[in-house]
Amino acid sequence: MQSIFLVVLIGLLGGVAVAVQASLAGIFSEKVGLVANGLFVFGGGFLFALVVMLFVGGGQIRAWRSVPWYVYLAGPLGIVIISSIGYAIPRIGVASTLTLIVVTQLIIGVMLDHFGWLTIPRPVDTQRLIGIAILFLGTWVVLR
């Protein structure tokens, strides 16, 4: 098991990357449009991942055929994510956009957990409902 410090550090790095990438996608989207923004962001990501794979190996890439069909929706959903970020940031700012995205992720995550879709079931309880209410309040404050 990895140390919690490393897990937290990697999570924080991901948070920094999301905020910076979102800001860059907003700029890119204004200049080239939503579809081209997705092409450049994912094309750049593809090239970066390809170079990393060439240096560290492909991991379990041959197992791609054993993945359920719906898992491949991750790619098109990524285009929806980057396009919505690119559209919203120039209009409402980075903090408001990321707040909407994070609160939506958490609410959908609670639903996925509750019904056991794509994960192990974890029913909604009072604490989670209170958390969702706090998230709505926080989102309202940030968007004001």
Could you name the key traits of this structure?
144 residues; mainly alpha; 5 helices
Shape: globular
Helix tally?
5
Low-confidence stretches: none
Query: What structural class should be given to the helix and strand makeup?
Result: mainly alpha
User: How far is the N terminus from the C terminus?
Assistant: 43 Å
Quickly count the domains: 2
Rg, alpha carbons:
18 Å
Mean pLDDT: 92
How would you portray this structure in words?
This protein is mainly alpha-helical and 144 residues long. It has 2 domains: 1-92, no CATH class; 93-144. It has 5 helices and no strands. Helix 1 (4-32) runs antiparallel to helix 2. The radius of gyration is 18 Å and the shape is globular. It starts with a helix and ends with a helix. The mean pLDDT is 92.
The gist of it:
This protein is mainly α and 144 residues long. It has helices at residues 4-32, 34-56, 74-92, 94-115, 126-143.
Secondary structure layout plus pairing:
Layout lengths: L3 H29 L1 H23 L17 H19 L1 H22 L10 H18 L1
Helix pairs in contact: 1-2, 1-3, 2-3, 3-4, 4-5
